[in-house]
Design brief:
CATH architecture of the largest domain: 3-Layer(aba) Sandwich
Number of strands: 14
Structural class: alpha/beta
Oligomer: single chain
Helix content: 25-40%
Number of helices: 12
Largest sheet: 7 strands, antiparallel
Strand order of the largest sheet: 4-3-2-1-5-6-7
CATH topology of the largest domain: Rossmann fold
CATH class of the largest domain: Alpha Beta
CATH superfamily of the largest domain: Vaccinia Virus protein VP39
Number of domains: 2
Length: 385
């Protein structure tokens, strides 16, 4: 459907938000050109409380969410009208009958897209329910791409890490690039989740194998996402991608993780999430050189050397990202019972220059162990810089 007056489109959204019998969930996010809403994101859904049914409104300023439960009727109408008056750039509304997406154009008009509901409405949410998945396990996405319960738990853990990382006002369209996407299981999940937040998302998956590109492209078309999700075949360092706001590198093997991090730094990507897999490069370097005293016991046994190489590799990766203007957290993003490769590097670009202490820490660690991190080579880092 072509552009239409914004007030007409907002009136339709209002009617959907104030229909407790059919509303499932709604998300407002983004911002209109030259305007900033009071919140980064607002989410609405009907809930069932002991005092009776209510409209739950969760607003976030990018740091801390605030939750209110509003009685239906005039109180809910006042809150909804106030939210609709905010200059949000996108509204995503799910009802029992349809999904409606409203996007405000640069000219201040409304682009409204309607589609049939793709999943049954969940029961009203009370406060005593178990913790919900960020992406419903019954979502049609899983029927298309497959996956068992353990895989879905891994998806949920990844999406929670992604949600916690993407704070503040996000650029739109939000350019997401998954480097080394493989079968794109988490790629598709990221797109589905971010789109459900009301964000305008453009996603590119990169993988070396042409057959993966063909398979993933077909799945994107089957899901109806061909215009927003595309795949290219090529190496991480040379694939034809112009840039990114969010870089994902999930279980890219060995130095492929370094290549993904290096490309993210060169792009100046505001957000980076990398889950390393395998650490053969430094493990081989440690095997061929004596350990500095008194740490020979850490590398004498092969299994200990391998595990130490994991830790040393990711510590140096985090240090190099900090030296290039990123704030970095190293976290466990899924329980080790689901995958032994459960470490996640989360980086947010601040642009802060490295301190003398940070430089000295990195240089001393590299010199003590006599190693050459692949990421440093890719970034052309040297102690003289």
């Amino acid at each position: 459907m072509g552009p239409q007056p914004l007030d007409v489109a907002l009136a339709e959204v209002r009617s959907l938000l104030l229909a407790p019998e059919t509303l499932v969930r709604a998300v407002a996010a983004g911002r209109r050109r030259g305007q900033t809403p009071s919140w980064v994101r607002a989410e609405l859904r009907p809930v069932s409380l002991r005092a009776g049914p209510a409209l739950q409104v969760v607003t976030s300023d990018g740091a801390r969410p605030s939750t209110r439960n509003i009685s239906w009727g005039e109180p809910a109408a006042l809150v909804v009208d106030a939210l609709l008056a905010e200059p949000f750039g996108n509204w995503h509304v799910e009802t029992t009958d349809a999904t409606v997406q409203l996007r405000v154009t640069k000219k201040g008009e409304a682009q409204l897209h309607r589609s049939a509901a793709d999943r049954p409405a969940p029961p009203p949410r009370g406060h005593d329910r178990e913790k919900e998945y960020l992406l419903d396990p019954g979502d049609p996405l899983f029927a298309t791409v497959g996956g068992n319960a353990a895989k879905r738990r891994q998806v949920d853990a990844f999406l929670r890490a992604l949600d916690a990382t993407l704070t503040g006002t996000l650029p739109e369209p939000l350019r997401v690039v998954d480097l080394g996407c493989g079968n794109a299981y988490l790629t598709f999940a990221a797109f589905r989740f971010l789109s459900s937040r009301g964000l305008d998302v453009s996603l590119v998956g990169v993988d070396l194998r042409p057959d993966q590109r063909e398979r993933n492209t077909a799945l994107a078309a089957q899901l109806g996402w061909a215009e927003r999700v595309r795949f290219v075949a090529g190496s991480i360092m040379e694939a034809p991608v112009a840039g990114a706001d969010v870089v994902l590198a999930l279980h890219a093997c060995d130095t492929a993780t370094d290549e993904a991090l290096a490309r993210a730094v060169r792009w100046g990507a505001p957000y980076v999430l990398a889950a390393p897999c395998c650490h053969h490069d430094l493990a081989a370097q440690l095997r061929g050189a004596p350990a500095p005293p008194p740490y020979a016991l850490l590398t004498r046994q092969p299994i200990l050397r391998e595990r130490f190489a994991d830790v040393l590799t990711d510590a140096l990766r985090a240090a190099l990202l900090r030296l290039h203007g990123y704030r970095v957290d190293v976290v466990e993003f899924v329980d080790s019972a689901h995958t032994p490769r459960n470490l996640l590097l989360r980086g947010r670009r601040t642009g802060a220059p490295p301190t003398a202490e940070q430089r000295a820490e990195y240089e001393a660690l590299v010199a003590a162990w006599g190693v050459r991190p692949r990421l440093a080579e890719l970034l052309a880092w040297s102690a003289s810089q």
